[in-house]
Design goal:
This protein is mainly alpha-helical and 71 residues long. The protein has four helices and no strands. The longest helix is centred in the C-terminal third of the chain and has 19 residues.
Length: 71
Amino acid sequence: TQSRSSAASDVYKRQNFDRTSISLLERGLRSPTLDTVICLCRALEIPYSQLAVLIEAKLEQLHAQEKPQPR
């Protein structure tokens, strides 16, 4: 959504992230360093452990969608 994109943009600006690098991360063309992930967590004011749980849940969801459905 637009507000989500705007919020993300604000986070990137506060942390001095390069727009090109962020674009590559968002499109999955580059993986973030641990330092980048921790900086994003600080900017979003969430603990790294919470982000890890969210990522794990999303990956499980994606993997479930990839499994072939029985006929």
